[in-house]
User: Fold these one by one.
Assistant:
Number 1:
Amino acid sequence: MKRLIAGAAALAAAGLGMARWAAARGRTPVPAKDPLAAGRWLGVTINRPPEEVAPGERLPEPLTRVDAEVRMNPAPGGRGTELYARPRERTARAEGALTRLRGEDSRTAVRTALREAKSLLETGDVLRSDEEVATTRPTLPGKVLDLALGRASEGGRL
């Protein structure tokens, strides 16, 4: 009986794999990474109306600290405000990788400012992860965790 159930599960998994393969054959290939990606807009949706996001055309404080172009649109369906920003200076593709490793990428600063502005407008405070993780001795996993927490606001998910 167990062999029958295992065989049925293997057959179902093979059928699912074939179905996914067949569906993927009709798709167009994903284009290569855009070399002009540094000029793209970064955006967040803030759960506040536009008049609360930028009262009197004044930008939220985190965005005034970075040199960035900023635009605002009402979010679809009346669900707040879409806030977009991109750095005024554009780094070359080769320089971008090096500046990201050193933590000096202008897109990282703009991304962090957008996240802080969203947090500030929605909660009234800039939310941060716990910087002090108490351990009895420094270990390799602890160092990896410290590195991840230190770079968490720069982008991506943790």
Note: The chain has a mean pLDDT of 76.
Number 2:
Amino acid sequence: MHQWRWRIVRNGKGFTFIEALFQLVIFSLLAQVIFIFYLLIQQWHDTIVAEEQIKWEIFIHDLQQYLLDAEDIYIMNNSLYIIDSSTKTIKINKITDVIRLQINDQGYVPLLIGIRHAEFSLSNNIVTIKVEFLNGIVKERALLVQYHK
């Protein structure tokens, strides 16, 4: 066994201390790059989630404004219909990946974009909206409706 060690050292095979330090430095640099890349991906994810949250809150605010003047509300074919005091019929439904608004069967205004699934339900004076975004985020909100008569 003593002769075997002597051959490894004499033939120059194996790692020297400087080679081991050099590999350690390279490994630590790669680890830092991977860590920075992970933090960047996490920041992108947080930004996407924040954007979806902002879109959702704006949509809810707009919907609440339409519900303020409601005289009647009903749901048909997963579309929300709001009849306001000026006898306008407001229809809110999902077509493809967009929740859109139509007033008196004319025109379409996109309210929320990037939707996989949307569900409207009505129970007593509470309208519930459940939305799944394309990235898998699910949002749900229940809104109290005070009928204007």
Note: The chain has two helices and eight strands.
Number 3:
Amino acid sequence: MQLRDYISVLVKRWWVIALTALAAAVAAYGVSKVLPHTFRSQAVYLALANQADNGLNIVLRNSMNSYRELVMQPGVLDQISQSLGLDISGEKWMADVNIQPLPDEQKIVIEVDAPQLAQAQAMANAVGDRMIAEVNRINASLEGTARINVTRIQEARLLSMSPNTKINVLAGGILGLVIGVLLAYILEYVDDTLKSSEDVERFVGLTTLGAIPVVGPGEATPPLKPLRRAR
């Protein structure tokens, strides 16, 4: 097949491509609405030393992971959940709460997944508050004036939501478009009928001498024209 043949197939079977793309987009929309939604909230905290001391900054970098472990325990998360009145166990929160220390930026990022946005935001803020309380408790037991302070610099806010209906519909439409193009060429491949004089000349290798007109019910038969034999 030549390039014009491929283009001809697309033009002739455009309805197959359009219908397949539309069906895939509608299916993606339906699946997105049926699947349970999950909201991810993010809160950001800043960990700073109260003195410009290299040794204290090294302690800060090494301590950020330990701050995470002070909170990332089923028992602690269960206490936080109960204090918020959430009927979600600490074991479940272990899979849905993520605390990511970023020593180079001196930040601690808390992300929480929950079926409701309000739950995700409340839990992210509460986990951060508990972490601040644990750090303050450690500071209270230390001698001297060197301290590491953790403060919130970003309230919990919506980071993402899944499934994303718009993206899923777009992806479904593109996938359906690709499948529709393939289907159009498959239908053209399995269709072995000759529909025009050009098809006869191309596939049979014979010159067309004439064509028999198709007359509908009630239509007059057009006069026949003499046929010329190809030389």
Note: The two ends are 28 Å apart (CA to CA).
Number 4:
Amino acid sequence: MASKSSVKPSAPGRRIQVRRSGVHGKGVFALVDIPQGERIIEYVGEVIGWDEAQRRHPHDPNDPNHTFYFHVDEDHVIDALYGGNASRWINHSCGPNCEADEDGGRIFIKSLRPIKAGEELNYDYGLVIDEPLTPALKADYPCWCGSANCRGTLLSSDLETAEGKKKSKKKKKKKNKKRAK
């Protein structure tokens, strides 16, 4: 008896597919070879202010550090929980094959190098938290990418670089939030 493939046939023109990831939860995979420098998908969802993002936080109380927020600028964030597409399932990697590219307030995921069919898409979230990067805080945002240069956390180790790129997936924490000891 022939075994069934876990990959469903794609519709004509489809280049990516969401499915189970070996990195974390769901992931996004290339169905065709994607050349370097190509826009793959736009990160979409409801555009809200940071005050509203704080009000909505956490999306899942059982996993409070997992959100679908993407920092656009100091006043706007995309919440892909509402109106999002497959882009919200692209996992983080410290050795990414994609990057986020801001263009006129819109965020596009673009390939950094050629991506082979079957390869999982990923980019460096470069999360920025308005708190000192303590070992405990880094542990709250673990990275499972497995790349040779993995820093062990989704948090950016270089605040200036992360802010300069303005391409970071970001979640602000309330400064006065009490941490359990």
Note: The radius of gyration is 17 Å.
